[in-house]
Amino acid sequence: MKSRNQQVDGLRGITVLMIVFYHLICRYSELYLDKSIYFLNQWGKFGVSIFLLISSYYSVSSRGNKYSILKKILRLWPTYFASITLTMVILRFLQLPGRTCGVSDYLLNCLFLNGFIGIPYVDGAHWYITTLISIIIINGFFNAFNISDKEFPYLIWMILAFLMTKIVKCLVITQVLGGSYVGIACMGASIRNFDKNTKSWKAMLFLALIYSCIMLGIKYVIILIFVTPIIIAAIKEKMEFLESKTLNMIGAISYPLYLIHQNVGMAIEYNMMVTFGKYSLWYVIIAIVLVIALAIVLYTMVEKPSQKILNNCWREIQSG
What we know:
This protein is mainly α. The protein contains 14 helices and no strands. The two termini are 20 Å apart.
């Protein structure tokens, strides 16, 4: 079995820290201090672009089967369920104005359904999970029908997503197709297939950038142009500094850290600000340390054991 790419894991570590800093410093300041921190303003988009590109790259496979979509979605669920449940419990004790949801919304969140039907998220950062599930489903079908190494399915995917988002404006279908982020998914597929037919997949990469420009704007495309070579270099293991043990540790907990950091971290900051009557960057440091600690607990007690169980079940299904 091929070992994990430590450089990609290290890149995940840097990426999730950028997102955490963006939300707990810049986004918090916008929501509760009525100010913006310009140099951090694009860190969230930068980080999410890397996550989506990496996830799209690894969701393309020539070995897909009827269980692969279910397997990948089930791998997301235990940590997601534990994270949103913990978030709901914490926000029953800590104030966070304008960032909470009701029990019925929580139940729909538990089923991954809320993002597809316009129901609020337990944590607004979880829109990424809805988009990721859409990418897993679409790429899963391409894998199952052995067309993930062909360009035309991705071209059709972008056309359909554009029509549903801009012309028909049907929320459910738009979300199922991946909406504005389909271009990033197609970029990931293009990178995955570069070695098969470089010219045609470079053309697909260019079309995916055009789609992203139309749907997300020129600033987002500039970010994508910047991060794509970084991701390719990490995939090809050309960036040795990313093999740092610290970055790999953070990369290992990146999924639970992403899920738990925003509302819980902001609630910690907000309640300290209310209690002491002023805002301090020390609150950010305390919030970051605490959400990282929670992420380690979720990784150790939920993600690792659940992945082991699912992998064992998967092996039994394959051997049967």
